[in-house]
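Field log, afternoon session.

UNIT: design team B
ACTIVITY: writing a sequence onto a fixed backbone
BACKBONE:
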């Protein structure tokens, strides 16, 4: 499960970095529409990966594969 979380987290960060590169790229020859489309696609992938990771964590907790390890209640 830890590997899945780290892989998903790396994908989320990579997608965010891709959107940042698309946003910061200043060449006007490619056009604003193409740049906006690439940035929107990267952010959509990031949101999809985030939701998928959250659902995978909920399912894993429900199935008993992971346990909470917070502070003990008194």
């Amino acid at each position: 499960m830890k590997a899945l979380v780290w892989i998903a987290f790396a994908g989320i960060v990579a997608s965010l970095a891709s959107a940042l590169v698309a946003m910061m790229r200043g060449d006007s020859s490619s056009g604003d529409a193409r740049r906006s489309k690439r940035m929107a696609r990267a952010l959509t992938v990031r949101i999809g990966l985030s939701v998928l990771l959250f659902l995978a964590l909920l399912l894993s907790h429900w199935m008993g594969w992971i346990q909470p390890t917070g502070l003990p209640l008194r």
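LOG NOTE: The radius of gyration is 18 Å.
NEXT ACTIVITY: expression trials, pending approval
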